[in-house]
Amino acid sequence: MTPLLKRLQANGLIRRERQVDDEHLVQITLAQQGVELRERARPTSVARGRAAGFTARDTKEVKSFLERLTANVSAC
Predict the structure, then answer these.
(1) How far apart are CA 12 and CA 33, in angstroms?
(2) Tens digit of pLDDT for each residue in 20-34?
């Protein structure tokens, strides 16, 4: 993961900040360029979902599931 994150940071897409109370934890956020890239990619994601036969509701359900999965894994 670290090499990928370093490349994303070097390309100005993300910011990595160590937590003050625990230096083992690194908070990763989108930099402005990352936000802009996400917005430009959004229509492509919607088109892929439609091509796969996903409805807007299907997409919301998948997103919700992935968010829960991420939260559960992070809590371990």
Answers:
(1) 6
(2) 999 889 999 999 999
Residue 72, both tokens: 């559960």
Backbone Cα Rg of the chain: 16
Q: Can you tell me which residue has the tokens 């996903």?
A: 54
Report how far residue 56's alpha carbon sits from residue 18's, in angstroms, rounded to the nearest whole number.
36
pLDDT over 90 (residue 68): yes
Task: Report d(CA 7, CA 13) in Å as an integer.
Answer: 9
Report how many helices (DSSP H) and strands (DSSP E) the chain contains, helices first: 3, 2
